[in-house]
Design a protein that fits this description.
205 residues; mainly alpha; 12 helices; 61% helix
Length: 205
């Protein structure tokens, strides 16, 4: 599971000791709520289904798909489904291929989500072998579902924008600059990302 409220508080307090700009932002915005997802296959399938559609549309497809093929906690139900069934549920041809890729990785044992490598970069590499799972999706999974404390989604636009604002940059920092800046925040970069999203989603703070 993801980082708990206590873990976020401890990590952000440590960050504030290293970076005064975080202390000022935290005084204004307060601590973020935890972002927690269930560990396992279903969360990655939801990630694929939710790409480039609204939350409401993704939930509709999820319900239809479950009604047609059975419980989506079982990857075998996707692996056994026909192309027609997947399309009937509202999956595009591309997303159907992604869903099959994920199901096959799990059912064949090539990917064991209970035994991902301890090294974060190795775990990301294992996840991005799934068609439709890019680096950002892999990072979000490891942060929200596994609670890995030092995951740093530097390619995320909101993280770039908000970290730039917090640090007083005139323009949005590049992904490379964001990565370089955050080196000093190890091993608490996951909490820094969650805080950046928290402030970004509350513009009145």
């Amino acid at each position: 599971m993801g980082l708990s409220a206590e873990q976020l508080r401890t990590a952000l307090d440590a960050l504030c000791g290293r970076e005064p700009a975080f202390a000022s932002a935290l005084a204004n915005a307060g601590y973020p709520e935890p972002r927690i997802r269930e560990r396992g296959y279903a969360t990655l399938l939801r990630t694929i289904i939710g790409q480039q559609v609204s939350t409401k549309a993704a939930e509709s497809v999820w319900r239809k798909l479950e009604g047609i093929v059975g419980p989506l906690t079982d990857p075998g139900n996707i692996a056994r489904a026909s192309d027609e069934q997947l399309r009937e549920a509202g999956l595009s041809r591309q997303k159907a291929g992604y869903a099959r890729s994920l199901a096959e990785e799990i059912t064949t044992g090539r990917l064991d989500l209970d035994r991902l490598p301890d090294d974060d970069e190795e775990a990301i590499a294992a996840l991005v072998r799934i068609k439709g799972i890019g680096r950002w999706s892999a990072e979000i999974y490891l942060l929200f579902a596994e609670g890995r404390p030092d995951i740093w989604p530097a390619g995320d636009l909101a993280v770039q924008i908000e970290v730039g604002r917090i640090l007083g940059h005139d323009a949005r920092p590049s992904e490379k600059l964001i990565r370089d800046l955050a080196e000093a925040w190890r091993p608490h970069r996951g909490a820094a990302a969650i805080f950046a999203w928290h402030v970004y989603n509350n513009p009145t703070l």
